[in-house]
């Protein structure tokens, strides 16, 4: 399958080239692990290749996203001006309106804008729109099918579960996603040093590294130390 580079140094090596085209990938992590940074790198890598991209945020404003990207040296403004990037902030204040927009208007945007890469950051808030697990599963599966109809490659970020840090908050998106990437904070035995590590727990239809690798959030974004070992 054709791999798409994520822009995350070292991570594409773990996948032997990148995320397979048209995959839906869930990036899970607790606060501060760099989920949004990972998503922005993925989008910026697509923009550099001339791809049309959409960044759907359920938390941050458009201005905040642009400012955050600029911290890492990624200037999004020219791509917004040239209509290569659409930034959307979806308010969850009106639950019914938010759900209707995601399920009806967003697919129309996919077609009219010829979207190649999509980020939903975080998908957790979309999941919260539905009170029952049955409704949550039904709507997420239907939404994923609409995405696949348009051949888009997707990163969905999610908070991890408070009880099980290896699962998403609601434990649903792992089943609809083609790939699952887990960002974690781990402590040395002395409980003084904290390290961040990444692992690919699932990536359908390709061989990938099963190793847990350390990574850093630098001034240039996330860098995975693919040749290093954790606590080496």
Automatic annotation (TrEMBL):
It holds the Pfam family ATPase. It comes from Candidatus Methanoperedens nitratireducens. GO terms for molecular function: ATP binding. Residues 2-232 form the KaiC domain. Signal peptide: none annotated. SUPFAM superfamilies: P-loop containing nucleoside triphosphate hydrolases. InterPro entries: AAA+_ATPase, Circ_KaiC_arc, KaiC-like_dom, KaiC_dom, P-loop_NTPase. This is Resolvase/recombinase. Keywords: ATP-binding, Nucleotide-binding.
